[in-house]
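Hi all, a correction to my earlier message: I attached the wrong file for Cyclic di-GMP phosphodiesterase Gmr. Here's the right sequence:
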Amino acid sequence: MMDLDQLGRMLETLCPMFTLVDQDGRILQVGPTLQKLRPDQPIVGSDFLEIFELVRPRTVTTLPALMATAGTKLHLKFHDEPRTALKGLVAPLPDDAGAVINLSFGISILDAVRDYALTSADFSGTDLAIELLYLVEAKSAAMEASRSLNLRLQGAMLAAEEQAYTDTLTGLKNRRAMDHILEHLVSTKSTFALMHLDLDFFKAVNDELGHAAGDYVLSQAARIMLEETRSDDTVARIGGDEFVLIFKSLSSRAQLERIANRLIGRLQKPMVFEGETCAISASIGTALTSQFLSPKPAEILHAADLALYEAKRNGRSCHRFYSEEAPAPE
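and the right structure:
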């Protein structure tokens, strides 16, 4: 006949969460996983009902009552923290020698794995908990991969959208972005001023010093325009050497005149590229929404263009406001 030591060794392989109790309810042996849950607490030698609280059925307070639950699912918790929930099943031994009480985590297995750092080695090879753990791990890995992919896609979409609205050479807004901003400002009936700036003599720089010098001049001009505008203003490159500056909530002609003069003064200073001097200047035309009863984007742009033509007609390197009396370009 198999003795209790042999039974215990067999149970360690088959049921790593078992407890072997004698006829008085004293724990004779526990499975390695169960002991791992209380590594500093000597479970062996303790009374079963001192270690575990019977949640259901609540009427079980003695070993005879516990033995009477054979074949009935028990709901238990540890008396001390963490009070991990457990499921149990009692199998009495022959000749009233005691009982094997096999325990499992049930739906609390994920909490147990987290709280006690359990691995697949802590479970029986046939335990369905192993499959559950693999499924949870696979799901977590899939969710992490999905989250990472979503972040990459969002980043790519933002980068693509930014690129669609950005002039690649200067980093300024492009014409598409300017059109979008103008539509928004007009639709919300916002007050703003629009400057149309053209670089004078830029073609000569390109023709005489090459496109690399021209690109350098455009980049430097863009930097100057950004430095002379506010963070919520818009600076856009809309053509080869043409720029539009939009000043939201600005209608002071004196202030706009000062800004235009600073831009003209800085842009007419010679720029040196690879030892060669690049000489340009700037002509600027400005239109204000206050000059129109019901402004439209195309109308404001055309008005600023007329003012720019007037500035060029007056010798370049100067600034003019739109006026209805100004002559149209030939």
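Sorry for the mix-up. The chain has three domains: 4-123, 127-164, 175-321.
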